[in-house]
Design brief:
With 348 residues, this protein is mostly helical. It has a two-stranded antiparallel sheet with strand order 1-2. Helix 3 packs parallel to helix 8 and helix 3 packs antiparallel against helix 10.
């Protein structure tokens, strides 16, 4: 008993040290990313401008007005959105993988990402902008979940296998609807906008958009964190869970709702970004094992780091900005192959 308790304490201490180091690395990378771009800002000026609202007097080496506008109106909202998107997609992926006990589960397992994408492209087709597109994406993402639950419900219950199969069907349906919207869209004006949006990009990040989308993402992240320890028992049978006093059906519904809200909110803000929700939870489990009390928060921090690095590369490595989803696939696919070879095709 004492030895097992000591092992738990050691694991908890190790987890906290890792999380502290990863969080510190995230802050360092944020400062570095704020200074990178076509108009470079030195680390001294970046830190000085960030500390100025706290009462510190800033002595700048460059043009104050240009740097202030660039830092607070362009780069900081984009970096904040990258962090929120990475944390959200990774947490949703970790939750789905734990819930369905399936290492290949991702935010599109229930057709959520595809459904939200359909809502967004439909909003673009009818001329919606900003909050209108976000609302359409969120409504369509929630609709996809309701469709999955309705299709999967057999004899008053929804089994996990039926939900996964129903998710595949709903995702295929919304993919066809997206193709239909692209077919009827104006090829000179609307179609290029839809195509670019589907590639996933954070270039449209503004202070207003981030402030509008952040509350839903943060609420869903907190909800998933509260569910984290309960996710460890979702693989039990209904009778076993009932004997432990855990309402399994309500737990699954809560996790699915929170993960759906996360995915739809991120998709509505940045478009369809793949690989993050599939890859990052695997890396978190490789570092911390299969306990979801560790995997979920670690996935959030690792996802934020991953998206921050990818987005910084997307806007700095070439003259023309590269869509984020292209880079996540280019980086994610080889890394995922290495993870599979290291774990010999298994998941911890």
């Amino acid at each position: 008993m004492d030895s097992s308790l000591s092992a738990v304490r050691r694991e908890t201490r190790r987890f906290r040290l890792w999380m502290g180091a990863l969080t510190a690395l995230l802050f360092v990378l944020v400062v570095g990313a704020l200074g990178l771009g076509r108009y470079g800002i030195s680390p001294h000026d970046t830190v000085a401008l960030l500390l100025e609202p706290l009462g510190f007097e800033a002595e700048l080496e460059g043009k104050r007005r240009v740097m202030e506008n660039l830092l607070f109106q362009v780069r900081l909202p984009r970096i904040a959105l990258a962090i929120l998107a990475g944390a959200g997609l990774s947490a949703a992926g970790a939750a789905f993988q734990a819930l369905f006990a399936n290492p290949l589960a991702s935010p599109d397992t229930l057709g959520v990402a595809t459904g939200a994408s359909f809502g967004a492209v439909l909003g673009i087709l009818f001329g919606a902008t900003g909050l209108g597109i976000q609302f359409c994406a969120l409504a369509s993402g929630l609709l996809s979940v309701f469709l999955v639950l309705a299709i999967a419900r057999v004899r008053g219950e929804s089994g996990l296998l039926m939900m996964i199969l129903a998710g595949m069907v709903v995702a295929a349906l919304f993919t066809a609807l997206i193709s239909l919207v692209k077919y009827v869209a104006d090829p000179q004006d609307v179609l290029p906008q839809i195509t670019f949006w589907l590639m996933g990009a954070l270039s449209g990040a503004t202070v207003d958009r981030v402030l509008a989308g952040a509350p839903l993402i943060l609420i869903a992240l907190v909800a998933l964190e509260l569910f984290a320890w309960r996710l460890n028992v979702t693989t039990l049978s209904p009778d076993e869970a009932k004997s432990l006093g855990i309402p399994l059906a309500r737990l699954r519904a809560g996790v699915i709702t929170a993960a759906t809200l996360l995915t739809a909110s991120v998709v509505s803000l940045c478009g369809l970004i793949g690989w993050v929700g599939l890859l990052v939870p695997h890396a978190a489990r490789l570092l911390f094992g299969s306990d979801n009390r560790y995997v979920l928060p670690a996935s959030m921090v690792l996802g934020a780091l991953f998206m921050l690095v990818v987005d910084t590369l997307a806007r700095t490595v070439s003259e023309a900005e590269i869509p984020v989803s292209i880079l996540t696939a280019v980086i994610g696919a080889p890394f995922f192959i290495l993870l599979l070879r290291r774990t010999q095709g298994g998941v911890r």
